[in-house]
Write a structure and sequence with these properties.
Elements lengths: L1 H18 L10 E10 L4 E9 L12 E5 L5 E6 L1 E3 L21 E4 L30 E9 L12 E6 L5 E3 L3 E3 L3 E3 L6 E3 L2 E9 L1 H4 L5 E7 L2 E5 L47 E10 L3 E10 L6 E2 L2 E5 L6 E4 L3 E5 L8 E5 L7 E2 L7 E9 L16 E4 L2 E2 L14 H23 L1
Parallel strand pairs: 14-16
Antiparallel strand pairs: 1-2, 1-13, 2-7, 3-6, 3-8, 4-7, 5-6, 9-13, 10-13, 11-12, 14-15, 16-17, 17-24, 18-23, 19-22, 19-25, 20-24, 21-22, 25-26
Length: 433
Amino acid sequence: MKSICGLVVLFFVMLPHAAAYDPLDPTGNITIKWDVVSWTADGYVASVTMSNFQMYRSIVSPGWTLGWQWAKKEVIWSMVVAQTTEQGDCSKFKGNVPHCCLRKPVVVDLLPGVPYNQQFSNCCKAGVVSAWGQDPSSSVSAFQVSVGVAGTSNKTVKLPMNFTLLGPGLGYTCGPAKVVPSTVYLTADHRRKTQALMTWNVTCTYSQFLAAKNPKCCVSFSSFYNQSITPCPKCACGCQNKNNCVVSDSKQAHKKGINTPRKDNAPLLQCTHHMCPIRVHWHVKLNYKDYWRVKIAVTNFNYRMNYTQWTLVAQHPNLNAVTQVFSFDYKPLVPYEAINDTGMFYGMKFYNDLLMEAGPQGNVQSEVLLRKNKDTFTFKHGWAFPRKVYFNGDECLLPPPDAYPFLPNSAKVNSITISTMVVSALLFLFIIS
């Protein structure tokens, strides 16, 4: 009995960590690198770089929030292109007053309006960071911090502890800071190498289990060979907002200020049976001899949220033969060697990379042309529909398999085929006679 109880406890202890593993992006993480670039009279100056190595999970508006706990009694004298949300009690300091005296500072990025001569590389984007797979050039955010009342050498510096990252909501878990080989820099002429005086890394991973107890999106299906539509499951994203939703054609939906976001990012959803902020619809549209065609539509039901730099990931065995994507950008994802069944769709820049809030403009759509593999292609048993769908890095809830659109009775299909063959044969005999 004791051993069974021990196994149960171990399972629940390991569950959150296991949920942080994403099988479609097994190496995805956010790495926060601290480079000590100079020593000061009572501490050091560090360049802090946040790199998003996740393939399809961006940090969207209102951006990242980074926190930690000092190991001793450190203070932040100054910051460049970032700021703490609170200063704290700095009354014991005479003359120069630190930027922040809190034992647990919380840092945010600056807005884009910072004067150009005061900017730092990869800064001032309001905390918005692209996914590595979508736009590597925008997947980095950085700032500089001057730390006082701290160590002044590699042996006396104490690493910060208990890092936290909001991106912008919950979901990220950060490991301890670890000293790594010092970062090497190249001068502008690429003829000289310099290096940081000391470097440590912090790795943060995302878990949908920790981010929310319910899914944030759902998927519906339809096809040309069946008139029925398979909707999202009822209360797919939970029905906790059912009493505070907006009917699409009501006066409230057109009320001034309804699209104003709240500081806590609380959603205001359109009333639906699934009560999800996002619905992805996968429609099997056409069937050709060597190709087949799918239409994908993404609809936003949240009146308070614009999705910038959105991403949509689908897993389907025929995504290894995508021929053309008409209105989205597309990139294959190969998380495991030789298994090419996953792809990422995202908006074209300045065209549909912004998914508007709920309303007439709150949707984006595209069609995808795929080449058939005659050895595996079929419309039977729901093969034409995706195995997994992710929106902005969160897995969407799919309908149950028994609810998928089904093919018409095969006997009817065969009878039509046979009758067609008979008519063709008689026509051929008539012509040659």
